[in-house]
Write a structure and sequence with these properties.
By secondary structure, this protein is mainly beta. The protein has no helices and eleven strands.
Length: 123
């Protein structure tokens, strides 16, 4: 289990940008695959993006491809999600998560989760 802390959420107009951060105080994230997920009201948690331990491999949900970019800085124990061209349907609580598995986009494969950060996109 790794303690994860997200930040950077907020209210933004459609077309705007936000950058989410996920930090692991006192822990090295370099051995974990990392992912971002989101959950809108009355909907299941869904995959957004993932990145491999060294950042060489990334995967995105079709709904965010070309608009969101996941990255990591292992020296800072931090993972980022840069979001541009935001749409009202991107409104959700965004969670970062850590996994010891490779290349997975499944919620069940991530064993550590942050508390979430709210992203609201107004039309």
């Amino acid at each position: 289990q790794v303690q994860l802390v997200e930040s950077g959420g907020g209210l933004v107009q459609a077309g705007g940008s936000l950058r989410l951060s996920c930090a692991a105080p006192g822990r090295m994230l370099s051995t974990y695959g990392m992912g971002w997920f989101r959950q809108a009201p009355a909907k299941e948690r869904e995959f957004v993006a993932r990145i491999s331990t060294r950042g060489g491999s990334t995967t995105y949900a079709d709904s965010v491809k070309g608009r969101f970019t996941i990255s990591r800085d292992n020296a800072k124990n931090t993972v980022y999600l840069q979001m541009v061209s935001l749409k009202p349907e991107d409104t959700a609580v965004y969670y970062c998560a850590a996994t010891v598995l490779s290349y997975t986009t499944q919620v069940r494969d991530y064993g550590s989760w942050g508390q979430g950060t709210q992203v609201t996109v107004s039309s």
